[in-house]
């Protein structure tokens, strides 16, 4: 073959290959067909094995002209930024017995709110509507010696909101608590009985929760403040079944109780009761008569702090005052019959002694004038009571009401 013929053959081969190749930038496999709807198969480079035509489609005839369509991949779209604020650097700072400062940061301007309380259901909220990226909210009137749960919440100007995870901080104890503080918040609580809710609900700061006793008149609920505190009142937020006649009792040791307030005409709803400042660790609401037949139901039981009385203003017991009638025994073991702690003996200044179990059921009552009153751990039918804790209410000849508890061990 002559050089000119070779050159012509090479140019022709190059032209055919160029016509058969996909366009620059096209996918190695394009969509080809003869132009009819539904008539499509894949096209590949020379030597590629092509998949069979789809059901109902016609494969192009060998040597038939085909129409070629290609798809090119564009750049990936960037993910949109999250619409809600992003919270970071949550912290409790400047924590005192009565206050704390909660701080955090958001990635955009947003308002500020802190939900807080002694439990993770919170119950109280402090907020600031100013839209800022740096947030600071002050919590005040906190209770000393308390662990608080909290979380922060922020909402931007478009209404998008977010909240942090649950966090905690603890307030230190204080040697002197200012007046007006609810000392009961988050403290330990006991009750004579429970039919709905739970006793701790009355100190969670949430009026939507509560506690209900059995359907009985003789029921009580008691709070342990954790340490002796000066108190000057209580706030009782009743639910449907309030007490009509009841007492507020206080104690330093949970054994010897003193009457701080007598209520003879309870009205329900919210009752704010004030009394002379007294130092106490334990505070009890002891019901005598309910306003309904359904026992007692409380949403909140607040114990309010008070300043101690001025030095010298607390009067000593006058000369000739009646002696304390409470029994010296704390543990009773009647089954032993060994003459030691078989009975509880109340002094001659006691005029009436009533003893109930922790469910409020009366097991003993006796009245005397000028003689000791003895309880031999038997009920009104002469049977030994079971092991457990029993509470004695003692009315004295000079009008006082005292309380005392016993542990009976058979």
Describe the protein's architecture and organization:
The protein is mainly beta and 410 residues long. Among the domains are: 87-170, Immunoglobulins (Immunoglobulin-like, Sandwich); 188-305, Galactose-binding domain-like (Jelly Rolls, Sandwich), CATH 2.60.120; 331-408, Sandwich (Immunoglobulin-like). Helix content is 4%, strand content 44%. The chain contains one helix and 24 strands. The protein has one helix at residues 3-20; strands spanning 30-33, 41-43, 67-69, 87-93, 100-117, 124-139, 147-155, 161-163, 167-170, 188-191, 196-197, 211-212, 220-238, 243-251, 256-263, 270-290, 297-305, 331-332, 344-346, 350-357, 362-367, 373-375, 388-396, 401-408. The strands form four sheets. Strands 10, 11, 12, 13, 14, 15, 16, 17, 18, 20, 21, 23 and 24 form a 13-stranded mixed beta sheet that branches. Strand 20 (350-357) and strand 21 form a beta hairpin. It is elongated. Mean pLDDT is 79; it is low at 25-50 and 315-319.
